[in-house]
Design the sequence.
């Protein structure tokens, strides 16, 4: 983990030893004398400019490596700055043969904190099992009103979110997710409800049951955790898709459809579970509900079949046009039960719902559907603090129409007419979910950003990125109307 301290505005001699690389993120307009001296003593052959980042690199007293980062442009989005510095961070330990990393922040802003944490995250080993640095310290030379009071809680949850996604799917099953959620609930005084097969049948959660009926190891389950439920106060419900592995079902995925990365299909469950945990640990005073439907989507003699017509818990009959459009099915039933049981003031869903979102929004923008203007503004503000980007979309009648079918009330593979079907998949899928929401509803399609598809997502050497977590935590901590 990261050791965080506040220090005097002076060269951190005790922390910059022979086996330590010193990284100074220089955010002050009037820089301290010791920083100026480091820049002046930098070695031109080692120093470099990466786009508009000036990186002065030198050896203190000829043996202790350091780098001072100064920005030539300060008006650019922090995600862009994170992307630039991540190019520098990768391989840093091996290049300079240092075992420890010391990072000095001249400003304790969220932006600089994210830049510093990326240096640690870029050195994570596969499946987040250890770090190439033996120790990482973040030293803030002054504490101000922008300092992160929940740094440890937030960062531990961010890492947990990433680790769940990176875990082997035979280990993080629907049953294992339930065990972990129950352990957390018992340790923190939260309510815990598990709907097993019999309870799901009783509740007529047929869509969730259908998706999971091909798996023995990771069968259909639905979990609800509650925090500070109070009569007369409606909670926010956090709902996350928990498909622990997705083969596509009988409409099996081709290799080109990212089947080798489909352990990430429970990314929504990982995000919402750790968001809930972080909020509870941080002393969040408002009522919360966490809803996690979970199972595997496998090829099996008992697997859900294309052409089936299945009645949802809420009532609409869904035509199963394609078994690889399963995420919206399990979310629909969990949303219906959650709204009926807990009467939320707002439901926020997160899911690796559509590969289309990667084509539409690239690896760098998370799609957000149906967020009201105030929420959008708060989210974009948080994104500028933490270096994350979002693309927000309102409801639009043609997208809703894409889910209609003559074989039932809805199809699970909505599309736009004719050649327009090449785009809009994320939007149409979001509108499918909205058919099952009785109250205010916001949907995050995180497929594009939760995994390092491009290979250069900031702070992610491989696999899970942690995208959207910091901004959502910031937004909910500050409170929304």
Sequence:
């Amino acid at each position: 983990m990261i050791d965080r301290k506040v220090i005097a505005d002076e060269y951190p001699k005790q922390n910059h030893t022979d086996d330590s690389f010193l990284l100074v993120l220089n955010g002050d307009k009037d820089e301290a004398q010791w920083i100026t001296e480091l820049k002046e003593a930098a070695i031109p052959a080692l120093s470099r400019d990466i786009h508009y980042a000036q990186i002065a690199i030198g050896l203190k007293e000829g043996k202790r490596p350091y780098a001072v980062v100064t920005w030539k442009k300060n008006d650019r989005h922090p995600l862009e700055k994170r992307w630039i510095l991540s190019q520098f961070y990768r391989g840093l330990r091996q290049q300079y043969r240092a075992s420890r990393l010391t990072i000095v922040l001249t400003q304790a802003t969220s932006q600089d904190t994210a830049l510093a944490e990326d240096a640690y995250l870029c050195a994570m080993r596969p499946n987040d099992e250890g770090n190439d640095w033996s120790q990482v310290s973040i030293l803030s030379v002054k504490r101000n009103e922008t300092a992160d009071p929940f740094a440890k809680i937030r960062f531990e949850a961010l890492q947990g979110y990433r680790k769940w996604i990176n875990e082997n799917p035979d280990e993080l099953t629907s049953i294992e997710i339930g065990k972990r959620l129950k352990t957390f609930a018992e340790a923190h005084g939260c309510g815990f409800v598990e709907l097993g097969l019999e309870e799901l049948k009783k509740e007529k959660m047929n869509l969730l049951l259908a998706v999971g009926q091909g798996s023995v190891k990771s069968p259909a389950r639905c979990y609800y955790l509650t925090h500070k439920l109070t009569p007369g106060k409606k909670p926010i419900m956090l709902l996350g898709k928990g498909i622990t592995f997705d083969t596509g079902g009988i409409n099996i995925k081709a290799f080109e459809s990212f089947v080798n990365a489909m352990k990430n299909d429970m990314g929504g469950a990982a995000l919402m579970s750790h968001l809930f945990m972080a909020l509870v640990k941080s002393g969040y005073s408002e009522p919360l509900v966490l809803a996690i439907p979970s199972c595997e989507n496998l090829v099996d003699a008992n697997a859900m079949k294309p052409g089936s017509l299945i009645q949802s818990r809420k009532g609409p009959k869904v035509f199963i046009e394609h078994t690889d459009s399963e995420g919206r099915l399990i979310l629909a039933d969990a949303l219906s039960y959650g709204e009926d049981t807990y009467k939320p003031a707002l439901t926020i869903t997160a899911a690796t719902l559509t590969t289309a979102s990667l084509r539409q929004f690239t690896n760098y923008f998370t799609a957000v559907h149906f967020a009201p203007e105030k929420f959008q503004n708060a989210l974009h503000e948080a994104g500028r603090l933490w270096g994350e980007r979002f693309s927000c979309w309102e409801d639009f009648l043609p997208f809703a129409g894409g889910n209609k079918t003559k074989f039932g009330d809805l199809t699970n593979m909505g599309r736009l007419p004719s050649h327009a079907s090449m785009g809009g998949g994320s939007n149409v899928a979001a509108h499918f979910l909205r058919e099952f929401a009785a109250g205010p509803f916001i949907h995050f399609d995180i497929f594009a950003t939760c995994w390092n598809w491009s290979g250069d997502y900031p702070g992610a050497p491989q696999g899970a990125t942690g995208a959207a977590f910091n901004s959502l935590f910031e937004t909910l901590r500050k409170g929304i109307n």
